[in-house]
Write a structure and sequence with these properties.
There is one protein chain. By secondary structure, the protein is an alpha/beta fold. The chain has one domain: TIM Barrel, CATH 3.20.20.380. Strands 1-2-3-4-5-6-7-8 form an eight-stranded mixed β-sheet. α3 packs parallel to α4 and α5 packs parallel to α6.
């Protein structure tokens, strides 16, 4: 893994994609299924293949396409999927949940963060649909997320706010935190 420059993380949803990413020099994999649906939880078989690929791998935990408002049954499925990712010794998980009213679902996120203890955690693009994005980022940091993945929202104002929130929470966390933005199919990393 590249420790000093940008990290090349590649989203893949197949074994062929996994092998192409490895051959192409990826530093890390985001493993999912159904990229055309924004990425869903991959099969246990694909998780096992990723575990044998020799690259750090973060697994998408998203039981269905559509919004990020999940019912209690979905949350239990997500917890089980996190456990499956852990059983294959994968490095991290990627998920996001909102409450249907434009806020992060703190209770459900807390439940999944407990299940993900010891794994790297990325708050998935749920922040893009939250009413108060900057508050949501602060809350994500408080919950212990290592990274936040966003499609960027409304440009420079949001980015400046994210950078300020990230800087303000570094001492509180005592560990690395990052904000990832996907803009026009390119990925840029902000923060430490």
């Amino acid at each position: 893994m590249n420790k000093f420059g940008p990290i090349l993380e590649v989203c893949v949803d197949s074994f062929a994609g996994l092998m192409a990413a490895k051959k192409g020099g990826a530093d890390r994999i985001e493993l999912c299924s159904s990229l055309s649906e924004g990425g869903l939880t991959p099969s246990a078989g694909l998780m096992q293949a990723a575990a044998q690929a020799g690259l750090p791998c973060h697994v998408m935990i998203r039981p269905r396409a559509g919004d990020f408002n999940y019912d209690p049954h979905d949350i239990e499925i997500m917890a089980h999927d996190i456990s499956t990712a852990r059983s294959y010794n994968l490095s991290g998980v990627v998920f996001g949940i909102e409450d249907g009213a434009g806020n992060l679902d703190i209770k459900s996120l807390g439940r999944l963060m407990e299940e993900a203890s010891g794994l790297d955690t990325t708050l998935h693009r749920v922040v893009d649909v939250i009413t108060d994005r900057l508050r949501a980022i602060d809350m994500a940091v408080e919950l212990g997320f290592d990274r936040i993945l966003t499609s960027g929202g409304s440009a420079v104002r949001l980015l400046n706010g994210i950078l300020n929130v990230s800087r303000g929470n570094r001492n509180k966390l005592g560990k690395q935190n990052s904000v990832w933005m996907r803009l026009q199919n390119k990925q840029a990393r902000y923060g430490n």
